[in-house]
Amino acid sequence: MRSNDPTLLILSSLAEGPKHGYAITADVQEIAGVKLGPGTLYGAIARLEERGLIEPLESEDRRRPYRLTGAGAALLREQLTAQERVATVGLRRLSAAEARV
Amino acid sequence: VRELLLLVYPQAWRERYGEEMSALLEETPPRLGATLDLLRGALIAHLRGLPAPAPALRARATIGYVLGSFIVFCVFGSGFAKTTENYDFTERLHPLLGVSHKITLTAALVAAGALALVAAPLAVASLAEARRTRDPRLMKLIAVPPVAIAVFVGSVALLVLWLNGHHHRADVGAWLLLGLCALCGAAASFACWAASRAIMARIELPRAAFNLSVPALGLVSLCMVAAALATGAFLIGVVLDAPRLGASGNGPGQLIDVTTSIAIQFAAMLALSAGAVLSAVRGLRSIRV
User: Fold this and answer.
1) Exposed (0-12), middle (13-18) or buried (19+): which is B236, by Cβ within 10 Å?
2) Cβ contacts of B46 on chain A, cutoff 8 Å
3) β-sheet bridge partners, residue B250
4) Which of A13, A101, B120, B227 is most buried, judging by how many CB atoms fall within 10 Å of its CB?
5) How far is Cα B127 from Cα B15, in angstroms, rounded to an integer?
6) In a mutagenesis test of the A interface, which of B2, B22, B24 is the best target, namely the one with the most A β-carbons within 10 Å?
7) What residues pair up with A67 in beta bridges, in sequence order?
């Protein structure tokens, strides 16, 4: 998964607790600066549901909240750890290269 | 206009996500980018179709469906038990009658045991979650099945006390209390079914709970099939060698004969058990994923 992949952004947003569609969109825009369109958002939600990474809760009026499953939390941790490793190594090399110049 | 765009999505998709997508569109300002994103999403939805439900959702749906089927099945099973309650002599008329009656009874007992296996891990997981979160709504939901069962048992105890006090006469009071028992039984069944569904939707059940509950549901559905087939065998026995018994009146007001009663019970039990088996197979596949 890329860092701006909608599914990863949604998983990261739900790591805080259950949210419905609008709350996920607002949270993703705040944490990543990415505005998820409604088609992209629900396409990603459907894929995540299919893989058992998130699951719906009871509807609140017409808005249905979703939450992270155990499998979703494990995958999110794995992906973020891998990205963190790449970021740490990349930044360290960049700093070393800048110091040499 | 954007809400109309939702009509471009496949029907199955609209049924699943339409309401919440519509609510989301009402909360977001209209933008050209969002409209184009909707069209793109609709195209992908048509190409990919609606995703299959997640394993946990499938397992939960199986539990809800088989439990619901079993409750309705019990209504017809009780009808069969009532129809044949005084037929102890029928084994002499045809061997099928005695054997099938015993199989129905055994299947009902095994199914009741399997139901306890279904409920136990779900109850343990729900109680653990309620203790951990102190969620008042969850606690209320967990209290519903025992309270509903207690009310039903109370109504039956009232009926038994009344009958004992009135020398087992079928008077108006007894019929009213019997009606109350039936009402409490139906309400308790519905309350147990609805509460279990609401609890499962509210908490994340551990995989181990499904690994025990769903196979136990498979056993419940097999017992339903066995009881339905045994009822069919009983029907054959009645038609072949007990036509006079089959022609006798049955049910309230003796409106239909015994053969028709058992035929209706058999058809309903067979249909319910077939649906339960199909749902259990899907549930078993989902927990193997």
Assistant:
1) middle
2) none
3) B256
4) B227
5) 33
6) B24
7) A55
User: Which of A46, A55, A59 is nearest residue B56 as measured by Cβ atoms?
Assistant: A55
Position B106, amino acid: T
Span A43-101, pLDDT tens digits: 999 989 888 889 888 776 778 899 998 888 999 999 999 999 998 999 999 999 888 87
Q: How large is the ipTM?
A: 0.80
Q: Distance (Å, rounded) from C-alpha B153 to C-alpha A53?
A: 42
Angle between helix axes B207-241 and B55-83 (nearest 10 degrees) is: 30
| B242: Cα separation from own chain's centroid | 33
On the 0-12 / 13-18 / 19+ scale of CB atoms within 10 A, A90 is: exposed
Phi first, then psi, for residue A3 (nearest 5°) are -65, -25
**Alpha carbons A10 and A32: distance in angstroms, whole number:** 11
Flag if B50 and A46 touch (Cβ within 8 Å).
yes
Tell me which residue in B40, B50, B54 faces A52 most closely, judged by beta carbons: B54
